[in-house]
Design a protein that fits this description.
Blueprint lengths: L11 H12 L4 E6 L15 E7 L5 H4 E3 L3 H7 L10 E2 L4 E3 L4 H8 L3 E8 L7 H10 L11 H8 L11 E4 L12 E4 L9 H14 L1 H19 L10 H14 L6 E6 L14 H19 L7 E7 L19 E6 L6 E2 L21 E2 H13 L3 H8 L36 H4 L4 H9 L5
Parallel strand pairs: 2-9, 2-10, 6-12, 6-13, 7-8
Antiparallel strand pairs: 1-7, 1-9, 3-5, 4-5, 6-11, 10-11
Length: about 450
């Protein structure tokens, strides 16, 4: 079982969130859907891969993507700013944190991009609320809402390998995948496996007392076998995050396996002793960089058809606080990597002067996060625009228009819908509803429910 890193903060909201996930045995959570994208690259069909990485806690984007051209950044950050002489070169006046050398190489190859100032439609500075909105894909918190990736599966065509009603969740069942589409659970090999002879009595107990649990467990074993067939073996000498990326790569390249995945990483809430160049934050970035390099290596055969999106629930304040850290903010950069990604900087920079910041502290978003996701789903998976605006991200056509140009043009795309094809209908509240762990936790513990 993995041991979580000590967290240099005392944010009650985030600690409650971590405790809830910790009880579910989560340090690195990975889910993947079994969709083979109808998209061609280099004359191959149905080979698109998509990995969504969520950095839980609110990652300090201004220390990852450094706006070196903006003197107000250095004035606000003081000793917590990343000095230009230590940072790595990118383009457009931006620099990169010195721990991200593998990412710099991907950027130089045109296989990495940043959208520098992105935000959620809900700006409450709350881990619970913002993670919920990131994952439900709606304009705000809605108790009982389903996850947008689950809704994405509902609009993709059936008949693909492992597509029909199959979603894979590793170690957890995050909101982003919850909904009407069934979910498979798979635990990585961080935990010992029972022999088949030992499993049979357990299955007999399940069959007598909880047939549904038995069915879930058998499906988990099936996916476990899939990962084994892909050659995955846990390496205890590597950080758990790196092993999580290795597992994602194995599953994404297994014949008949998943083609879309979501991976979550805890530990990005840095209120005190952030350690921008040396310390907790720098170590987290170094591990993430190593994981991205491993992913690039392990997905070499399908890299040209791969897109990875790295995001967080909110950014951090531009001014440093009084405890050598940063507090919950709003605007944040979104990172994209992969052979299918159009490299560079996409989007505007709002500025770091006090008058340009929200309330004098927070980076002002220039784009809605849903716009970025819609651009990736449209360009990479060929999802129909109407489905994106009404089903995957309901009521988002005006508030979160699709950001085009994030994905390299392909040689073939999903066929356009027939002229008489029915127009997608907006989802009803009943279709959006699904019990959420966050809501249950709040109700059980008397926490405010919006």
């Amino acid at each position: 079982m993995t041991r979580p890193l000590p967290l240099p903060h005392d944010c009650a909201d985030h600690l409650l969130s971590l405790t809830r996930r910790g009880l579910m045995g989560l340090s690195v959570g990975l889910f993947s859907s079994a969709f083979l994208g109808e998209r061609a690259r280099a004359n191959t069909l149905s080979e698109a891969r998509l990995l969504i990485v969520i950095l839980r806690g609110g990652m300090d984007g201004a220390s990852l993507l450094v706006p070196a051209f903006d003197p107000a950044y250095y004035a606000a950050r003081g000793a917590l700013a990343v000095p230009p002489e230590a940072a790595l070169a990118l383009s457009g006046g931006f620099l990169l944190h010195p721990a991200m050398r593998d990412l710099q190489a991907l950027y130089a190859a045109g296989e990495a991009a940043f959208v520098p100032a992105v935000g959620l439609p809900l700006q409450t500075h709350s881990h619970f609320e913002c993670q919920e909105v990131l994952e439900n894909g709606l304009a705000g918190s809605r108790p009982g809402a389903s996850g947008w990736v689950n809704r994405l599966l509902s609009v993709l065509p059936g008949g693909e390998p492992l597509r029909d009603g199959r979603v894979l969740a590793i170690n957890s069942n995050p909101l982003i995948v919850r909904g009407s589409e069934p979910v498979l659970d798979w635990s990585s090999t961080w935990f010992p496996r029972l022999r088949p002879t030992a499993l049979e009595p357990l299955h007999q107990i399940y069959a007598a007392r909880d047939p549904e649990l038995l069915a879930i467990h058998r499906l988990g074993l099936e996916v476990d076998a899939m990962a084994g067939a892909g050659g995955y073996q846990n390496d205890p000498t590597l950080p758990p995050v790196v092993n999580g990326f290795r597992g994602a790569a194995r599953l994404l390249t297994t014949a008949g396996g998943p083609r879309v995945a979501v991976l979550t990483i805890d530990g990005w809430d840095t209120h005190a002793d952030q350690g921008v160049l040396e310390g907790h934050f720098a170590e987290r970035l170094s591990t993430l960089d190593r994981a991205l390099g491993v992913l690039r290596h392990d997905l070499a055969g399908v890299w040209d058809s791969t897109a990875v999106v790295v995001t967080t629930e909110f950014g951090r304040t531009i001014p440093a606080n009084g405890t050598r850290g940063t507090d919950h903010g709003v605007g944040m950069p979104v990172l994209l990597v992969g052979g299918a990604v159009r490299g560079g900087i996409h989007g505007d920079w709002p500025g770091c002067r006090p008058a340009e910041l929200l309330d004098g502290y927070d980076l002002r978003p220039t784009l809605d996060l849903r716009s970025v996701f819609k651009g990736v789903l449209s360009g990479h998976l060929g999802v129909d625009q109407a489905q994106l605006d009404t089903v995957v991200f309901p009521d988002s056509a005006q508030t979160a228009p699709t950001l085009h140009g994030l994905i390299v043009e392909t040689t073939s795309r999903r066929p356009a819908p027939a002229a008489d094809a029915p127009v997608p209908r907006p989802l009803t509240d009943a279709q959006l509803s699904v019990p959420t762990p966050i809501l249950a936790y709040r109700q059980q513990n008397g926490i405010f429910v919006p």
